[in-house]
Amino acid sequence: MESQMLKGKVAIITGASYGMGRTMAELFAEEGASVVLTARGREKLDAVVDGINEKGGRAIGVVADVCSTEDTQKVFAEALGAFGDVDILINNAGIGEQKIIDETDDEWMLYVMNTNLGGPMRYIREALKIFLPKNDGVIINVSSVNGIRPFCGATYTSTKGALNTLTRNVAMRLVDTNIRCNAVAPGATKTPAHLANKKGEQPGGAKMLEYSGHFVYFPGPECECIDQAYACLYLASKMGRAVRGQVLQVCNGAFL
Question: Annotated active-site positions, please?
Answer without folding.
Answer: 156
